[in-house]
Structure formats: structure tokens, C-alpha cells
Design goal:
The complex is a heterodimer of chains A (121) and B (108). With 121 residues, chain A is an all-beta fold. In chain A, 0% of the residues lie in helices and 51% in strands. Chain A contains no helices and 11 strands. Chain A is globular. Chain B is an all-beta fold and 108 residues long. In chain B, 0% of the residues lie in helices and 46% in strands. The chains are: A mainly beta (121), B mainly beta (108). The interface between A and B is medium-sized, with 24 and 25 residues.
Chain lengths: 121, 108
């Protein structure tokens, strides 16, 4: 059974940093684009970043560009999101998701259960 | 950047048909995916590439996409279909994923 499990969330002060991890199992991680998606409390889904199978292409939503970095370690079946200069508006549940189909435009067919990041205002 | 618009809410009686729209400029030229999210749960893919249905999605769920509107149709609606539904588009001009704002489906 395909599994994705996020970790690393928590309470961090404005301006602080946090590194999220997502470890996956039961599928060839190195063969898939991966993504981070977040959801602020009571709000809708917001895409954060995508990364290509080999890490050679990365895309970010404008609001996190320059502050967040998506990366992966295919040997460890792990996806990461380094978050710096955190703001109150970054407070959300962060999901990692597998991207299937054609490249970066494919569907998110498997999701983790999410990890909560809280940045007080 | 590309924008997609969903109605905030749709209500339907059990056994009837619910239609949830996702509007965007010439969205028919893009591929649209749909997710269901129940309270406290992660999103779940219900339709991919406009009308594809994953193995875990009931046949009552279908999708279409043409012109400026993509539509998720749920036939013979059941109480268990009550959830938030999101459309997802890849905007190749900006290399961005775009989600609709979500539609809350209420089963009366």
C-alpha cells in the first residue's frame, strides 16, 4: 500500500525556520514528481511547490519563492520542505502528495495525512 | 496568473444529481483534476485529466471539460458524498498548480 508520512511540523516564531519531511513507501519514489500542498485553518487548498523526479526542476507559488526550498533524497525515499522567514500566513497543515500522469501537470493521486505548522501573529 | 473559480456551495437532495463547476479562461484547453475532502481528512482524488476515474472512485462520479467550464457531476447523490470538492489545473504558462477555492457539497 502506497504511504506518505509527513513530519517536522510545530510551533515556530515569526522569522523562524522549520524543515518538513515526507517519507514514502511502496512505490518507486525516484520515478515520480512530488509536491507540497498546504491548507490554512478553515481555508482551501494551496499548492506550495513541485519537484521533478531527479530534482532538476522545482516550481513554487509566488508567496513562498525565496523563503521555501523543496528538495528530495531518492536514496532515502524522502521529500523535504525547508521553510525560512516564516510568517503568520504560513500557518497551515502541510501535505506532501505524489504527482502522477504527465510531468508537473499530473494529478495528486496519493496524499499524506499532513503536518501542522503554526506561526503566531 | 491563471485563476479558476468554484461556487462556494452546492446543495442537493439524496438521489439527485449534483454538478460542481470550475470556471477559467479557456479551461477546456487544460487538464482538470478533482479532489474530495472530508473534515479532518486529507484530500482524495476522484477525477483526473477531466474525466478519468481512479479505481476507488464510484461510477456515480464523472467529469467533463469544455470551453470555460469544467464540471464534476455526482449522480444519485448519497449522504456520504457530503464534502468539500476542489478542482486543480496546471498552468503551463507560469509553471504553477492552481486550485479552485473549493465547493462545499451539502446533501439535504
Amino acid at each position: 500500500e502506497v504511504q506518505l508520512m509527513e513530519s517536522g511540523g510545530g510551533l515556530v516564531q515569526p522569522g523562524g525556520s522549520l524543515r518538513l519531511s515526507c517519507i514514502v513507501s511502496e512505490f518507486p519514489f525516484r520515478s515520480y514528481w512530488m509536491s507540497w500542498v498546504r491548507q490554512a485553518p478553515g481555508k482551501g487548498l494551496e499548492w506550495v511547490a513541485n519537484i521533478k523526479e531527479d530534482g532538476s526542476e522545482k516550481y513554487y507559488v509566488d508567496s513562498v519563492k525565496g523563503r521555501f526550498t523543496i528538495s528530495r533524497d531518492n536514496a532515502k525515499n524522502s521529500l523535504y520542505l525547508q521553510m525560512n522567514s516564516l510568517r503568520a500566513e504560513d500557518t497551515a497543515v502541510y501535505y506532501c502528495a505524489r504527482v502522477s500522469g504527465l510531468g508537473a501537470g499530473g494529478q495528486f493521486d496519493y496524499w499524506g495525512q499532513g503536518t501542522l505548522v503554526t506561526v503566531p501573529s | 496568473s491563471y485563476v479558476v473559480t468554484q461556487p462556494p456551495s452546492v446543495s442537493v437532495a439524496p438521489g439527485k444529481t449534483a454538478r460542481i463547476t470550475c470556471g477559467g479562461n479557456n479551461i477546456g484547453s487544460k487538464s482538470v483534476h478533482w479532489y474530495q475532502q472530508k473534515p479532518g481528512q486529507a484530500p482524495f482524488l476522484v477525477i483526473y485529466y477531466d474525466s478519468g476515474r481512479p479505481s476507488g472512485t464510484p461510477e456515480r462520479f464523472s467529469g467533463s471539460n469544455s470551453g470555460n467550464t469544467a464540471t464534476l457531476t455526482i449522480s444519485r447523490v448519497e449522504a456520504g458524498d457530503e464534502a468539500d470538492y476542489y478542482c486543480h489545473v496546471w498552468d503551463s504558462s507560469s509553471d504553477h498548480v492552481v486550485f479552485g477555492g473549493g465547493t462545499k457539497l451539502t446533501v439535504l
